[in-house]
Amino acid sequence: MTSHIKMIPELSKESVSMRDPQRVEETLNSMRQAGPNTLQVISDFDMTLTRFAHNGKRCPTCHNILDNSKLISEECKAKLKDLLNTYYPIEIDSSRSVDEKLPLMVEWWTKAHDLLVQQQIRKDRLAIVVEESDAMLRDGYRQFFDHLRDQDVPLLIFSAGIGDVLEEVIRQAGVFHPNIKVFSNYMDFDESGVLRAFKGELIHIYNKREGALLNTGHFQELRARHNVLLLGDSLGDLTMADGVQNLENILKIGYLNDKVEERKQSYLNTYDIVLVKDETLDVPNAILSYITGSQ
Ligand SMILES: Nc1ccn([C@@H]2O[C@H](COP(=O)(O)O)[C@@H](O)[C@H]2O)c(=O)n1
Ligand SMILES: [Mg+2]
Predict the structure, then answer these.
(1) How high is the pLDDT of residue 224?
(2) Which pLDDT value is given to residue 12?
(3) Pocket flag, ligand 1, residue 144 (CB < 6 Å)
(4) CATH architecture of 3-50+137-291
(5) Which tens digits make up the pLDDT trace of 30-62?
(6) Which locations, inside or outside the cell, does it occupy (predicted)?
(7) Is the shortest distance between the CB of 107 and ligand 1 below 6 Å?
(8) According to the model, what pLDDT value does residue 215 have?
(9) What are the residue ranges spanned by the domains of the chain?
(10) How is domain 61-132 classified at the architecture level of CATH?
(11) How many angstroms separate the alpha carbon of residue 244 from the centre of ligand 2?
(12) Whole-prediction pTM
């Protein structure tokens, strides 16, 4: 191992694999030299910032928080569970191409959102169901969110989950800081606070990218930030930085949570650093401290 990598002991954890340590070495060096003013962090949410499992039990996604809650009738819960059992295995099937999976993923999201809309979900109940859920941010989350805020580094969260639920998870954890921008599926409530639709174009796992922000105000403040730390858990998350203008360096960290043996090679081929069954933010935290010169 060469010097920059050696200076980050977390990269020697058993959970860490790298296809090309030399590339990681060079990227870390360039990003550290450029400093925090040139950095933006682009992250997925479900199963990247949140835990995949805790004490051997699966943790919920934003959708699952609602699906399993008291806001949903038993009949509807059964239908949502059937959808999960049908489509999640397709989402993580490494033998199918993106072209094959994409229409099926759109079908899953569309059917699930239609069912949720039929449930007359009240906006003022969301905080309670998040509080009652088993959702958990990964260990080390406070250091991650607070460090980015303290260093004035923008954190862009691109999630195919549900924005209202996602925001509530990070708000209840006390880390919804002003440097965070969330791009996700937001609920549209009527004047009495009842869910009537989802706003805008559907965001699913294969259409998340910063290029979509080109004409928004958010894009302006990112103009000078040519270095990206990207965090994801799905191969669809790899495109999140597409459209970053004058990209200079990008370091991609991928959480491999499920079906490890089948998927490890494809993660190694596409992510710079792969974290296998690692429920912590230790590696991103150590890398951020290193890049921003706070270690
Ligand atoms: N009805 C659905 C649809 C999707 N999911 C899961 O949500 C994840 C997407 O959220 P990200 O923050 O990771 O973009 C995705 O991986 C699906 O497994 C769901 O649980 N229910
Ligand atoms: Mg995810």
Answers:
(1) 86
(2) 95
(3) no
(4) 3-Layer(aba) Sandwich (3.40)
(5) 999 999 999 999 999 999 999 999 999 999 999
(6) Cytoplasm
(7) no
(8) 58
(9) 3-50+137-291, 61-132
(10) Orthogonal Bundle (1.10)
(11) 20
(12) 0.96
Q: Whose CA is nearest to atom 7 of ligand 1?
A: 161
Sign of the dihedral through C-alpha 63, 64, 66, 67: positive
DSSP string, the chain: --HHHHT-GGGGSTTEEES-HHHHHHHHHHHHHH-GGGEEEEE--TTTTB-SEETTEEPP-HHHHHHTSTTS-HHHHHHHHHHHHHHHHHHT-TTS-HHHHHHHHHHHHHHHHHHHHTTT-BGGGHHHHHHHS---BPBTHHHHHHHHHHTT--EEEEEEEEHHHHHHHHHHTT---TTEEEEEE-EEE-TTSBEEEE-SSPP-TT---GGGGTTSHHHHTTTT--EEEEEESSGGGGGTTTT-TT--EEEEEEEE-SSHHHHHHHHHHH-SEEEES--B-HHHHHHHHHHTT--
pLDDT tens digits along 177-191: 999 999 999 999 999
Contact 210, 230 (CB under 8 A): no
Cβ(235) – ligand 1 distance below 6 Å: no
150 is catalytic: no
